[in-house]
Amino acid sequence: MSIWGVRCLTQRFIRQAYILANRRLLGPVPERSPPAYAPLRPAHSSLYQMGFADVKSVCSAKDVLKSDSAKLSTSQPVLDSCKATSPCEEFKRKRKETTCQPCNEDGTALGGGNGGDEECECRMKDLRLKCLLGALAALLAGGLLAWFMTRDTDDSEAKKAEAEEEERKRRLVAGLATSPPSSEDLPKHVPYLIIGGGTAAFSAFRAIKSNDATAKVLMISNEFRKPYMRPPLSKELWYTPNPNEDPIKDYRFKQWTGSERSLFFEPDEFFIDPEDLDDNANGGIAVAQGFSVKKVDAQKRIVTLNDGYEITYDECLIATGCAPKNLPMLRDAPPSVLEKVMVYRTPDDFDRLRKLAAEKRSITIVGNGFIGSELACSLAHYSRENNGGKVYQVFQENANMSKVLPNYLSRWTTAKMEAQGVCVIPNASIRSAVRDESNLKLELNNGMTLMSDVVVVCVGCTPNTDLAGPSRLEVDRSLGGFVVNAELEARRNLYVAGDASCFFDPLLGRRRVEHHDHSVVSGRLAGENMTGAKKPYQHQSMFWSDLGPEIGYEGIGLVDSSLPTVGVFALPSESATRVDQLSESSDSDVPETSTSSSQSSKSDAGASQDGVTCDPDEAGNYGKGVIFYLKNDKIVGILLWNLFNRIGLARTIINQNKKYDDLNEVAKLFEIHA
């Protein structure tokens, strides 16, 4: 029943109650003779007899005798059924009967009168009160009914809208839809356009908004999620108990410091729909998800999407990042084998791999770099906590992180990983992969055979520079990435930041860096320059890695194991305090220790001072320390092993660009001798 129907029923009930309470004669009705044998009724019960305006005489001798013998008292006249009554007299009589006199509390009429009329009038008064209460009750019931019906309708509509939004998100995450549904819904012109949806892109937006409060920024991303950070995908997310299984929900994790945060930079409510960007007076950021750019015309300032839709801009940033590599022999394998092979870079990859780990599947990691080593440790921890399957790590090098860590520290790290439950297989590569029912049969070049449910390839990535050819932009032939100047400009009003940029470092020469800190800082500087700052990029970016809760290190500058290194380590002691690299934290206190130094490329055989040894094999535990990377006897890179929140000091030492006679004295600045 609708609200209007409830209202009509209520009005009808009130009208009937009003008529019943006032007993007015509304008018004549079609003539109908009452039966001659009908007894005379009291006035309050004669409602059904009202309206007999013209009563015909229907009488007999017997009726007349009954009428004469049935004499009533003078206070209650008797209607003669054989005598015609005029309508006016009938109306007056009825009105007189319905006129109520005041009554006492005991029900008798005022003035001491008695008789049926007084009792009748008191009953009429009670009836009116009951009718009024009934009308009020009907109004209340009708209002409540209308409220319940309206509330149910609103709840059902809200639930329906929520279900539709959830279905839209699921389709978007699954890559079955774009947001907005069509490129025609995107604005034709934007002041600030960002190509890419990663860390550098969102950092640039923050810088733009800080310098232009009403800036309107459109971000075009080929991913189907809002901007998020990648480092926790191989680290903290695996150590967070009971993470949310639903891919459309927020990915929350606990950092090493115990604080909790989301994988996404901002919630969905922070962003504006692309269709509403032009109409928003305060500006903001809109993300077009699931769209790709095929060409940038830097001269005309026009961006062309894959479907041919064109968008003009005032300032543009390219922050396309990089794509994970795959092994050629696996990339070209049959579909049955490809079903068991994956790369690792996005939340979708995390969801898939975590589901396999929860099903106690055996997993093989290929690669010994940052992602491969971190992921192997995280999977081993997850498998140990949940009685999962075996975790293998296969790589061609001698030990883990061999391109970054000195040889002695790389071997020690491999032993630590094996102690955590990783089955490390160095000096090996996959020669062939064959599908054997539900598993992959991996033949290695060292003669070993592995049976694995899935293979995760972590062998680095390549910058996304597909725009370079159609857009006539320069790409570095050896390092890859778009070539930019000191202000991160590839062309006028066209900037590049993040993993895809190849920039010139005044101290270390031309470089391309694939680290979170570089994406944040280069994106911020590009955003500032898009608003007119014109600052040069002189930042020495840092990186960090975690091999489980026990091993963590930070690096800055040119950290390359092929360079000569000098390492100064503290003897075994309590672990240093972990800090969060995704947010600011205070310096950690370092306990008093003695030191041991090692020099991998320079030869120092004997002990130089008490408690210090130069033979790496004599140091049973590299608990914490600092490693200096040298080029032309100058410090060009520093790695802090289990020492945290000292990266600012390391940056200062590198920027001094000078030679040091005693690196042990430099190591004291990091308080490992405190």
TrEMBL record:
Chief localization: mitochondrion
Top-level taxon of the source organism: Eukaryota
Spans through the membrane: 131-149
GO biological process annotation, one example: mitochondrial respiratory chain complex assembly
Domain Mitochondrial apoptosis-inducing factor C-terminal: 526-656
PANTHER family per the UniProt record, alphabetical: APOPTOSIS-INDUCING FACTOR 1, APOPTOSIS-INDUCING FACTOR 1, MITOCHONDRIAL
Name recorded for this polypeptide: Apoptosis-inducing factor 1, mitochondrial isoform X2
Organism: Drosophila mauritiana (Fruit fly)
